[in-house]
Design brief:
This protein is mostly beta strands. The chain has helices spanning about 15, 115-120, 180-190; strands at about 5, 10, 20-30, 40-50, 60, 75-80, 90-95, 105-115, 125-135, 140-145, 155-165, 170-180. The protein has one domain (about 5-190): Lipoxygenase-1 (Sandwich), CATH 2.60.60. It contains 3 helices and 12 strands, in the order E-E-H-E-E-E-E-E-E-H-E-E-E-E-H.
């Protein structure tokens, strides 16, 4: 049975999923029926941060044009861009092998942005049922889930969750923070 997280809640992965080696991070959403004249294209991205909470390098920004982390083990993999978000379940997926994440990666920030949001006059207020979930790759068991409940009517970028190291163990934080300015606002924050 998965643990349902509330905004701001932090949990130890060692405690809720002892022996977790690799995580499947699924992100999903539905779009409200609105006529903006253009399809919605939401994109999941991952920022790999150092202990100063800054992007280690441009290659440590994982998204649809850079699908794998730069370490030799390719410990973090984005499984590709979903251009429509149609259908149930996970719309975009990131795989994280926690055993192989290099020690200089202190924080893995999972985000979602709306592609060309300003031009298309779109925002997260037009999106519903957004969630992030963490699944044990080996057992296929959903461990944690965070369902976004706020109405982000002006925001075009969201930080959904963070997986971070503390006291030698991996933890997860349900963030749920919205930003205006799309992907660029997040890049500005972490560079």
């Amino acid at each position: 049975m998965a643990i349902s997280l509330q905004k701001g809640q932090r949990v130890s992965l060692d405690k809720v999923a002892p022996g977790l080696n690799a995580a499947f991070i699924g992100l999903g959403w539905d779009v409200n029926t609105t006529d903006t004249g253009v399809d919605f294209d939401l994109d999941a991205s991952v920022f790999l941060l150092n202990s100063n909470e800054k992007l280690i390098s441009d290659q440590h920004f994982i998204f649809y044009n850079n699908l794998t982390s730069p370490d030799p083990e390719k410990s973090i993999k984005h499984m590709g861009d979903n251009l429509t978000g149609e259908g149930d379940g996970d719309d975009e997926v990131i795989i994280v092998d926690l055993r192989k994440v290099p020690t200089d990666v202190n924080r893995i920030v999972v985000t979602v942005t709306i592609y060309d949001a300003d031009k298309r006059k779109q925002n997260f207020g037009q999106v519903r049922n957004a969630f992030v979930r963490l699944v044990n790759v080996e057992t296929k068991e959903e461990v944690l889930r965070y369902d976004l409940e706020e109405d982000f009517s002006t925001e075009t970028a969201l930080i959904m969750a963070e997986i971070y190291r503390k006291d030698g163990e991996w933890r997860m934080n349900a963030v749920g923070a919205g930003y205006q300015g799309g992907l660029q606002a997040l890049l500005n924050r972490y560079q």
